[in-house]
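2024-03-11 09:14:02 INFO worker-7 job=invfold-0412 stage=load source=structure_tokens
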């Protein structure tokens, strides 16, 4: 999931994966 965070933090923040969004926006 770290790839999504590093490449597209905004996309990860909107929430494709719950854990990804949590890491970007706790």
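2024-03-11 09:14:09 INFO worker-7 stage=emit residues=26
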């Amino acid at each position: 999931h770290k790839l999504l965070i590093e490449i597209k933090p905004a996309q990860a923040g909107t929430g494709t994966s719950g854990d990804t969004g949590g890491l970007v926006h706790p």
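2024-03-11 09:14:09 INFO worker-7 stage=report msg="The chain has three helices and no strands."
2024-03-11 09:14:10 INFO worker-7 job finished
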